[in-house]
Task: inverse folding
């Protein structure tokens, strides 16, 4: 992916200055005259640039700050960090579960074959009045999402 900005455009948009192959800009939460963050154009990065904080700021916050200042769209390369940041802003506690752990917490044996059918069956057993929501083979995703919620509740209550 090519960066839609030149070094000068980046510097102007971010309130920084071009120094060699870097653009030095204020880090997240720093003053306008601060230059504690470096932004480099990178063809191999999903966002077309990489950030480095000389002040030790979290790189995701630096990246999100640059994206916001540039008015760029959401990057699907970082959905988890965005969800975590929104949850933190709302005061919601986040617990990350691996897929095998999540399946074990709801009583499904993690395996490669038959897991989707098992998720539908488990959802139907838990919510028999909602059988229509999980009846079709194509409803496996809905069943898995519902069971992720159950796994989170089980984990939060200390039962798993």
Result:
């Amino acid at each position: 992916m090519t960066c839609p900005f030149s070094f000068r455009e980046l510097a102007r948009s971010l309130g920084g200055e071009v120094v060699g192959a870097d653009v030095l800009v204020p880090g997240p939460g720093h003053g306008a005259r601060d230059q504690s963050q470096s932004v480099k154009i990178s063809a191999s990065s999903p966002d077309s640039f990489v950030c480095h904080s000389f002040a030790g700021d979290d790189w995701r916050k630096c990246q999100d700050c640059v994206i916001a200042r540039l008015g760029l769209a959401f990057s699907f390369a970082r959905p988890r960090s965005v969800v975590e940041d929104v949850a933190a802003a709302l005061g919601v506690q986040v617990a990350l579960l691996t897929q095998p752990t999540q399946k074990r917490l709801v009583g499904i044996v993690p395996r490669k074959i038959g897991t989707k059918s098992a998720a539908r069956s488990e959802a139907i057993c838990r919510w028999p009045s909602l059988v229509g929501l999980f009846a079709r083979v194509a409803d496996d995703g809905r069943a898995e999402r519902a069971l992720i919620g159950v796994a989170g509740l089980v984990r939060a209550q200390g039962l798993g």
In short: The mean pLDDT is 83. Residues 7-90 form one domain. Helices lie at 7-14, 59-70, 79-90, 99-105, 115-126, 140-156. Strands lie at 17-19, 22-25, 37-41, 49-53.
